[in-house]
Amino acid sequence: MKRTYQDIRRTNRFAVMRYLIASAPVVRRDIAATTGLSVATASDIVNELHELGLLAEIGQQASGGGRPRNLLAPALEGPRLIGVDIAETYVHVEVFDPALRVLARAEYELHPHANSPDYVVDRIVRGIDDAIAQAKVERARILGVGVSIPGQVRPDGTASVFAPNWQWNDVPLLALLTDRVPDLPVILDNPLRASTVAELWFGAARGHDNVAVLTLGTGVGAGLAVQGALYRGATNTAGEWGHTNLVIDGRKCRRGCVGCVETYVGAPGIMQHLAEADPDSPLLHPDDQMATIDALATAHAAGDPAAQQAIATTGRYLGIAIANLINLFNPQTIVLTGWVADSLGSAVLPYVRATAARYALAEPWEGTEISLCPIDRNPVSLGAATLVLEGFLS
């Protein structure tokens, strides 16, 4: 598809803002050299960002006898952004400045069997109000609220969540939130895309255009970026890689399908690998996925045979699923994120790489990096806030 002038301008704004956030303080000449833009184009965008309140001049740099150059950085006293990470058990809210530094955070527990839309919206609104109060920011300075919901978000703002205790179908979540916070623009998306945006701006995908960010948790999914922009598909539901088939007539998944990737590399599937390796393993906590995964990581490091077998099995299944993704999508980089990847990523990665190398075609495999998420804070709330920034820059 031919790119329009607006597409190019938007991409250039993103590039300049990303560079400012990563490398400030900088001068205009540095921006042009690093982003590949002309000095005139870079200067025009800098002026735009300054007028929008996102950029500030914070001093001057000597130029070896010529006129001193102005040092530029994100305007720390500029507008504010809010990112909301909704999981199956909590609502996590953070307030950010234009450098995407966390200024305040609030978290509310979601009770497992009380996840009606009104209940969840109430917790989101409470979290937003609490975080704003902690940040001591006027609501008029807030550019918007990015909200990540664990499910499918359609272009009309309806959400469907198929978590075991939710079973939402076409809930008008955007309208419900807008009614409760009418003074703040709200952007609604899911954690796959929020995590992908965070990786593009701050993580292992920075500097890459074609990216797959794989979220490993209770469920499994893929956030995709093509030519540096999120790939959403025709109905904003692209990325259901966890529900692609891995084993014919295999395990049944929570959506009623069989043999899905999720059932072999999501937390319940990993627990089943462990149970098959040792049915009486003391590492198993049937009603607590996190406790089991943490115990498995510790036992693997200590050389426990059952733990090592479960990790190896998980890594091989994940490697095959990633090989399929490499052959289909041909990404430059694949990033593993999510709480399961945080606990087990370093242990499964050698098996993943070895298996993917065996099953992927040679040419796309050689052009692909596989790594763990390097972001040391909540990537979902960070990505949700960055979606707000992208929308504003667009």
UniProtKB/TrEMBL annotation:
Name listed for the protein in its UniProt record: ROK family transcriptional regulator
Species classification: Bacteria, Bacillati, Actinomycetota, Actinomycetes, Kitasatosporales
Pfam families: ROK (PF00480)
Domain of life where this protein originates: Bacteria
Family: Belongs to the ROK (NagC/XylR) family.
